[in-house]
Fold this protein.
Amino acid sequence: DAMVIQNPRYQVTQFGKPVTLSCSQTLNHNVMYWYQQKSSQAPKLLFHYYDKDFNNEADTPDNFQSRRPNTSFCFLDIRSPGLGDAAMYLCATSRDMGGMKTQYFGPGTRLLVL
Amino acid sequence: AQSVTQLDSQVPVFEEAPVELRCNYSSSVSVYLFWYVQYPNQGLQLLLKYLSGSTLVKGINGFEAEFNKSQTSFHLRKPSVHISDTAEYFCAVSYTGTASKLTFGTGTRLQVTL
Protein backbone atom coordinates (compact mmCIF):
# COMPACT_ATOMS: atom_id res chain seq x y z
CA ASP A 1 0.00 0.00 0.00
CA ALA A 2 1.12 3.52 -0.77
CA MET A 3 1.95 5.30 2.43
CA VAL A 4 3.86 7.86 4.46
CA ILE A 5 6.50 6.37 6.74
CA GLN A 6 8.23 8.03 9.65
CA ASN A 7 11.28 6.79 11.45
CA PRO A 8 11.88 6.41 14.25
CA ARG A 9 8.48 6.32 15.96
CA TYR A 10 10.06 7.40 19.23
CA GLN A 11 13.23 9.45 19.59
CA VAL A 12 14.98 10.45 22.78
CA THR A 13 17.64 13.14 22.65
CA GLN A 14 19.52 15.29 25.10
CA PHE A 15 19.11 18.99 25.57
CA GLY A 16 21.15 20.73 22.91
CA LYS A 17 22.08 17.57 20.98
CA PRO A 18 21.15 17.74 17.29
CA VAL A 19 18.52 15.29 16.14
CA THR A 20 17.15 14.29 12.73
CA LEU A 21 13.72 12.86 12.04
CA SER A 22 12.99 11.05 8.82
CA CYS A 23 9.98 10.82 6.53
CA SER A 24 9.54 8.83 3.35
CA GLN A 25 6.60 8.36 1.03
CA THR A 26 5.57 5.95 -1.68
CA LEU A 27 2.70 8.13 -2.93
CA ASN A 28 4.94 10.08 -5.33
CA HIS A 29 3.45 13.32 -4.06
CA ASN A 30 5.31 16.50 -4.83
CA VAL A 31 4.45 18.33 -1.60
CA MET A 32 5.76 17.28 1.81
CA TYR A 33 4.94 18.99 5.10
CA TRP A 34 6.27 18.92 8.64
CA TYR A 35 3.98 19.63 11.57
CA GLN A 36 4.69 19.93 15.27
CA GLN A 37 1.97 18.74 17.63
CA LYS A 38 2.30 19.33 21.34
CA SER A 39 0.18 17.49 23.85
CA SER A 40 -3.55 18.20 23.52
CA GLN A 41 -2.95 20.80 20.81
CA ALA A 42 -3.63 21.06 17.11
CA PRO A 43 -0.86 20.27 14.64
CA LYS A 44 1.17 23.36 13.77
CA LEU A 45 2.76 23.65 10.34
CA LEU A 46 6.52 24.24 10.49
CA PHE A 47 7.36 24.23 6.77
CA HIS A 48 6.71 22.46 3.51
CA TYR A 49 8.45 21.53 0.31
CA TYR A 50 6.80 21.97 -3.06
CA ASP A 51 9.09 19.80 -5.17
CA LYS A 52 12.49 21.27 -4.25
CA ASP A 53 11.15 24.65 -3.17
CA PHE A 54 11.35 25.13 0.57
CA ASN A 55 8.66 27.22 2.28
CA ASN A 56 9.14 28.19 5.90
CA GLU A 57 6.30 29.37 8.11
CA ALA A 58 6.93 32.83 9.52
CA ASP A 59 6.91 31.73 13.14
CA THR A 60 9.03 28.58 12.78
CA PRO A 61 12.16 28.95 14.94
CA ASP A 62 15.55 28.96 13.19
CA ASN A 63 16.41 25.91 15.26
CA PHE A 64 14.28 23.85 12.88
CA GLN A 65 15.61 23.01 9.42
CA SER A 66 14.58 20.63 6.70
CA ARG A 67 16.11 18.79 3.77
CA ARG A 68 14.51 17.04 0.84
CA PRO A 69 17.16 15.15 -1.14
CA ASN A 70 14.64 13.57 -3.50
CA THR A 71 10.89 13.20 -4.05
CA SER A 72 10.54 10.32 -1.62
CA PHE A 73 12.44 11.56 1.42
CA CYS A 74 12.26 14.57 3.71
CA PHE A 75 14.17 15.21 6.93
CA LEU A 76 13.53 17.44 9.90
CA ASP A 77 16.67 18.64 11.67
CA ILE A 78 16.53 20.21 15.11
CA ARG A 79 19.89 21.84 15.64
CA SER A 80 19.77 22.39 19.40
CA PRO A 81 16.67 20.83 20.93
CA GLY A 82 15.23 22.50 23.97
CA LEU A 83 12.80 21.05 26.47
CA GLY A 84 10.02 22.95 24.73
CA ASP A 85 10.65 21.03 21.51
CA ALA A 86 9.36 17.80 23.00
CA ALA A 87 6.35 16.96 20.85
CA MET A 88 4.93 14.67 18.19
CA TYR A 89 6.29 15.52 14.75
CA LEU A 90 4.03 14.66 11.86
CA CYS A 91 5.00 14.38 8.23
CA ALA A 92 2.34 14.74 5.56
CA THR A 93 2.19 14.73 1.78
CA SER A 94 -0.17 15.98 -0.89
CA ARG A 95 -0.35 15.93 -4.63
CA ASP A 96 0.21 19.58 -5.48
CA MET A 97 -0.78 22.57 -3.39
CA GLY A 98 -4.24 24.00 -3.10
CA GLY A 99 -7.00 24.09 -0.58
CA MET A 100 -8.81 21.06 -1.90
CA LYS A 101 -5.76 18.82 -1.88
CA THR A 102 -5.97 16.13 0.78
CA GLN A 103 -2.97 15.73 3.01
CA TYR A 104 -1.88 12.21 3.94
CA PHE A 105 -0.16 11.85 7.29
CA GLY A 106 2.47 9.50 8.58
CA PRO A 107 2.23 7.89 12.04
CA GLY A 108 4.43 10.56 13.62
CA THR A 109 7.65 10.59 15.63
CA ARG A 110 7.39 11.37 19.31
CA LEU A 111 10.43 13.34 20.45
CA LEU A 112 11.50 13.39 24.06
CA VAL A 113 14.17 15.86 25.18
CA LEU A 114 16.02 15.08 28.39
CA ALA B 1 -7.74 34.96 8.21
CA GLN B 2 -9.40 31.61 8.58
CA SER B 3 -9.91 29.87 11.90
CA VAL B 4 -11.60 26.77 13.26
CA THR B 5 -13.37 26.39 16.59
CA GLN B 6 -14.09 23.08 18.23
CA LEU B 7 -15.95 24.10 21.35
CA ASP B 8 -15.98 20.68 22.99
CA SER B 9 -12.57 19.55 24.16
CA GLN B 10 -13.99 16.25 25.41
CA VAL B 11 -17.15 14.32 24.60
CA PRO B 12 -17.97 11.27 26.70
CA VAL B 13 -20.56 8.90 25.25
CA PHE B 14 -21.80 5.38 25.85
CA GLU B 15 -21.30 2.71 23.25
CA GLU B 16 -24.10 2.47 20.67
CA ALA B 17 -25.27 6.02 21.46
CA PRO B 18 -25.26 8.73 18.77
CA VAL B 19 -22.66 11.47 18.85
CA GLU B 20 -22.13 14.90 17.33
CA LEU B 21 -18.80 16.69 17.39
CA ARG B 22 -19.12 20.38 16.66
CA CYS B 23 -16.97 22.45 14.35
CA ASN B 24 -17.40 26.09 13.38
CA TYR B 25 -15.16 28.01 11.04
CA SER B 26 -14.62 31.60 10.09
CA SER B 27 -13.52 32.66 6.67
CA SER B 28 -14.34 35.46 4.31
CA VAL B 29 -13.91 33.25 1.26
CA SER B 30 -15.12 29.88 0.09
CA VAL B 31 -13.72 27.04 2.12
CA TYR B 32 -12.92 23.37 2.01
CA LEU B 33 -13.54 21.42 5.20
CA PHE B 34 -12.00 18.26 6.57
CA TRP B 35 -12.35 15.96 9.54
CA TYR B 36 -9.34 13.92 10.65
CA VAL B 37 -9.15 11.26 13.38
CA GLN B 38 -6.07 10.58 15.46
CA TYR B 39 -5.80 7.39 17.49
CA PRO B 40 -3.35 7.33 20.42
CA ASN B 41 0.26 7.69 19.27
CA GLN B 42 -0.77 7.65 15.62
CA GLY B 43 -0.83 10.13 12.78
CA LEU B 44 -3.95 11.78 11.40
CA GLN B 45 -6.32 9.81 9.18
CA LEU B 46 -8.82 11.51 6.90
CA LEU B 47 -12.42 10.73 7.87
CA LEU B 48 -14.20 12.86 5.28
CA LYS B 49 -14.02 16.12 3.40
CA TYR B 50 -16.29 18.71 1.86
CA LEU B 51 -15.08 20.32 -1.35
CA SER B 52 -18.32 21.20 -3.13
CA GLY B 53 -21.70 19.78 -4.09
CA SER B 54 -23.91 17.93 -1.64
CA THR B 55 -23.73 19.43 1.82
CA LEU B 56 -24.05 16.01 3.47
CA VAL B 57 -20.76 14.18 3.27
CA LYS B 58 -20.29 10.55 4.18
CA GLY B 59 -16.95 9.24 5.35
CA ILE B 60 -15.28 6.15 6.65
CA ASN B 61 -16.28 4.18 9.75
CA GLY B 62 -19.91 5.31 9.51
CA PHE B 63 -19.23 9.00 10.10
CA GLU B 64 -20.93 11.81 8.23
CA ALA B 65 -20.84 15.60 8.37
CA GLU B 66 -23.04 18.38 7.12
CA PHE B 67 -21.76 21.63 5.70
CA ASN B 68 -23.94 24.55 6.76
CA LYS B 69 -22.80 27.73 5.08
CA SER B 70 -25.25 30.05 6.85
CA GLN B 71 -24.12 28.81 10.26
CA THR B 72 -20.49 28.34 9.17
CA SER B 73 -20.53 24.87 10.67
CA PHE B 74 -19.33 21.41 9.71
CA HIS B 75 -20.48 19.13 12.52
CA LEU B 76 -19.46 15.47 12.56
CA ARG B 77 -22.02 12.81 13.44
CA LYS B 78 -22.28 9.09 13.93
CA PRO B 79 -25.61 7.38 14.76
CA SER B 80 -24.07 4.62 16.89
CA VAL B 81 -20.53 4.72 18.26
CA HIS B 82 -18.24 1.87 19.11
CA ILE B 83 -15.49 1.57 21.68
CA SER B 84 -12.98 1.65 18.83
CA ASP B 85 -14.12 5.19 17.93
CA THR B 86 -12.34 6.50 21.02
CA ALA B 87 -9.84 8.97 19.59
CA GLU B 88 -9.06 12.64 19.02
CA TYR B 89 -10.99 14.29 16.20
CA PHE B 90 -9.72 17.37 14.38
CA CYS B 91 -11.69 19.66 12.14
CA ALA B 92 -9.66 21.57 9.56
CA VAL B 93 -10.31 24.26 6.97
CA SER B 94 -8.56 25.46 3.88
CA TYR B 95 -9.63 27.83 1.15
CA THR B 96 -9.48 28.15 -2.60
CA GLY B 97 -6.07 29.13 -3.82
CA THR B 98 -2.84 27.35 -4.55
CA ALA B 99 -1.16 28.79 -1.47
CA SER B 100 -3.82 27.58 0.91
CA LYS B 101 -2.81 25.44 3.85
CA LEU B 102 -4.78 23.54 6.44
CA THR B 103 -5.83 25.28 9.63
CA PHE B 104 -6.74 22.85 12.38
CA GLY B 105 -9.07 23.20 15.32
CA THR B 106 -7.84 22.27 18.77
CA GLY B 107 -9.46 18.86 18.63
CA THR B 108 -12.22 16.98 20.45
CA ARG B 109 -11.47 13.92 22.49
CA LEU B 110 -14.24 11.34 21.98
CA GLN B 111 -14.34 8.87 24.84
CA VAL B 112 -16.64 5.89 24.31
CA THR B 113 -17.44 3.70 27.31
CA LEU B 114 -19.56 0.62 27.90
About this structure: The interface with chain A takes residues 9, 31-32, 34, 36, 41-46, 49, 51, 90, 94-102, 104-107 of chain B (CB under 8 Å).
